[in-house]
Design brief:
By secondary structure, this protein is an alpha+beta fold. The chain contains 6 helices and 7 strands. Strands 1, 2, 3, 4, 5, 6 and 7 form a 7-stranded antiparallel β-sheet that branches. A hairpin with a 7-residue loop joins β6 and β7. α1 crosses α4 and α3 crosses α4. The protein is globular, with a radius of gyration of 16 Å. It starts with 6 loop residues before the first helix and ends in a 5-residue tail after the last helix.
Length: 212
């Protein structure tokens, strides 16, 4: 997949998302009572079609927690993972052998939502540090909504009426490492700013003196 980001912007966004991953790793480790790490492997800016393809084959079942953005940026953030990976994560959080959960129940859904909230807040906190917002204008996610759809239709379903406006997606791939046998979690974080916010964010990446 080709990126539409310049080299400098890509490096700067990677640094931001890696900082978010560090914050999420610390928060998740504290919550789980065991050391875990989120490792960012790639950052891309792509259109919606490419983003859908990044989630897997069109007929692959995908779970995702969708959150709106509150604060200086508008849009959505999605944390997506393979359906089986979401169930494995729930087993880890509930201190059960990996593979125990075979279907989504109330506890599994709650575990996925709480994980998405922790990860989303950590990434957005890292991003907010580079935005010209005041202390009362924080960037935060709305409560997560769990979706289960085929990869080919997840984004259209998640965005619905907003799909015509959200034409570009910031995509971050991350691996989840908890040192547990059978726990192989690869997550895709999709930051989907509205057109105004994408333009503002792009301007910040150009003008910020911290850009490499």
């Amino acid at each position: 997949m080709s990126t539409n980001l310049s080299g400098a912007r890509e490096r700067f966004l990677r640094a931001i998302f890696e900082r978010g991953a560090e914050g999420a790793s610390t928060a998740l480790s504290r919550w789980l009572g065991t050391e875990v790490r989120l490792i960012v492997s790639a950052i891309d800016q792509v259109d919606l079609v490419e983003a859908s393809e990044a989630l897997g084959p069109p007929d692959a079942l995908v779970a995702a927690c969708a959150m709106g953005l509150v604060g200086p940026l508008g849009g959505s953030i999605l944390l997506a993972f393979e359906d089986r990976a979401g169930l494995a994560l729930a087993d880890l959080l509930l201190n059960r052998p990996i593979g125990t959960a075979v279907e989504w129940g109330e506890m599994e859904e709650s575990a996925a939502r709480e994980t998405a909230n922790i990860v989303g807040c950590s990434y957005l906190n890292a991003l907010a540090a580079y935005l010209p917002s005041g202390p009362a204008d924080e960037l935060a996610p709305t409560p997560p909504n769990l979706l289960r759809e085929f990869a080919g239709s997840l984004l259209q379903f998640a965005l619905m009426e907003q799909a015509m406006e959200f034409d570009q997606v910031l995509l971050a791939r991350a691996a989840f490492d908890a040192g547990k046998a059978g726990l192989d979690l690869n997550w895709t974080l999709l930051l989907i700013p509205d057109r105004r916010s994408l333009q503002a964010l792009t301007a910040e990446l150009v003008d910020d003196p911290r850009t490499p």
